[in-house]
Amino acid sequence: LFRAACCNLGESFTANPSVDVSYSDAATGARQIKLLGLSGTYVQMLTENIPNLRGAGIPYSLGYVPGPWMQSIQVSKGAASVKNGYESITGQIDIEYLKPQGTDGIRGNAYLDSNLKQEANLDGSIHLNDRLSGSLLLHGENRQRDHDGNGDGFMDMPRQKQYNVMNRWAYVSSGLISQLAIRLLGDQRSSGMSSHAANHDIRRYGVDVNTHRYEAQWKNALMLQGRPGTSIALMLHGSWHDAHYTFGDTRYNVTQKNGYAQLMYETDLDEHHNLAVGSSLNHDYYDELASGAAFAAPYPAAGSHSESTIGAYAQYTYKLGEQLTVMPGLRYDHSTLYGGFVTPRLHVKYMPVSLLTLRASVGKGYRSPHALAENTPLLASGRTCIVANDLKQETAWNMGLSAALNLPIGSKTLEVNAEYYYTRFGNQLVINFDGARGDHTLFFDNLHGRSYSHTLQVDATYPLVEGLTATAAWRYNDARTTYDGQLRQRPLTSLYKGLLTLSYKTPTALWQFDVTGQLNGKGKLYDNSDYPAYGQLQAQVTREFRHFSVYLGGENLTNYRIARPIVGAENPWQPSFDATQIWGPTEGAMVYIGIRIKFETL
Prior knowledge:
Layout: E1 19-23, E2 31-35, E3 38-39, E4 43-47, E5 50-51, E6 70-77, E7 91-97, E8 105-113, E9 118-127, E10 132-143, E11 159-172, E12 176-192, E13 206-223, E14 231-247, E15 250-268, E16 273-291, E17 303-320, E18 324-335, E19 339-353, E20 356-367, E21 384-387, E22 394-409, E23 412-427, E24 429-433, E25 441-446, E26 451-465, E27 468-483, E28 486-489, E29 496-505, E30 511-520, E31 523-524, E32 530-531, E33 534-544, E34 548-555, E35 590-600
Parallel strand pairs: 4-7, 21-25
Antiparallel strand pairs: 1-2, 2-3, 4-5, 6-7, 8-9, 8-35, 9-10, 10-11, 11-12, 12-13, 13-14, 14-15, 15-16, 16-17, 17-18, 18-19, 19-20, 20-22, 22-23, 23-26, 24-25, 26-27, 27-28, 27-29, 29-30, 30-33, 31-32, 33-34, 34-35
């Protein structure tokens, strides 16, 4: 989290070989992640092990989590634990925020880049006594520059304002842990034709996204005295997400209210056996309003609708020291929309020798599709939206194998990882662009045919010399879906990715240098034509002082960008207009400078 600017969650994955982050459109600056060659909608997002940032929160969720707020990020690929629900298909990303029970003090961060984006973060924590702690986290960002670097008349990135506030409290004793968090967020984005557009005869095409989000989270754990490893936990979460979108003459408003509760009991039966059982309740309420040129007929889901899902699970873990771990899990859930369904999952870890660790996983996942709420940036085009009336629950199996080898070479250790994952959909929300049903359409339908993804990755890490560590990775994706009866490569999904990172810290630890190079492979556009492979480079240097550090860096230093990111920019009111086929950078080289301060009580 300190090897790059990491202004938000999306920018935290730039040096990660497994998670891809890219812009989903050239109008709103929405970022999306891809894991195992599939969209980020199939990754279950968690905040401290509670499902979060779902549904209407997905399109811009990577920008809702400030980087300086994060203590750590855990990425789990493939089928995940049944404890957190049934929604994980390609994996989970769990975000741990800074804890109030950590070190007392004040920490801050200020950032400025060459695009005149300003950002400031401040957090402080205090121990009121030996059990009760509190903290306040503040974030603000602002960018109001009307930037059109390629001269197509459209802003390359939106003007943006955001405020983000979180208040946390923690009570920690030998028998009880209770943590409460309340969060408020406001995000405004404005884009479209720039004020310097050359064609003043065309009516201005504007893009506006206004979002307000409110969250509350309360986690409680009671440790049963005299029974090691035994606890009862109650986790509660509620959120209210309200978003208003404007794309030219198209209007889409969505409000999502979510409530989640989980009760869990976990115990160590003995040194080899662990059992976790629990139940959960999730309720989603959506209120949608859609109107304008993008809708040939009223959007089918317009109005209000809700879904309640109640479930129960059991997970057993067998451990034979460090040599073998077997963890089967099973849960049953009942949805008011889709009825009852079963989620089986199995994880195995085996160490035949101390140098080698083998892992295998298999499991099923389910999702409730929300065509526009989860894919709103796709409205940045002249297409007409058509949504099937009978969208079904998404289902998929995921299977994975991995091997980790720690090989001593001299006095150092070479870490090598190899993994393979296969995802196969039973049903899927298929988004068909300009398909056989007619030109310039955006058709949301159930899967009719096959859809799958193969992912193979190899990475290695080695300390070349004292203080210098290198990581190299290569990944291959084969993701295909049936469109109009033809099994085709999924659009805007690169076939391969190469990554090389170098990190050097001086013996005195006062200077740190980080460089990351990426090779992003070729892929397909909506019309099945190819886009090329391209490389990117980013670097950062950090100087540490007693109570602060200064960092200077740059992104996309190769200055590579798509020559024509927006199709039909000369007249956005035509059906051929399209700002959604973004397969590479839309902005050239960017440099930034920042400072981190820290005054903590030792």
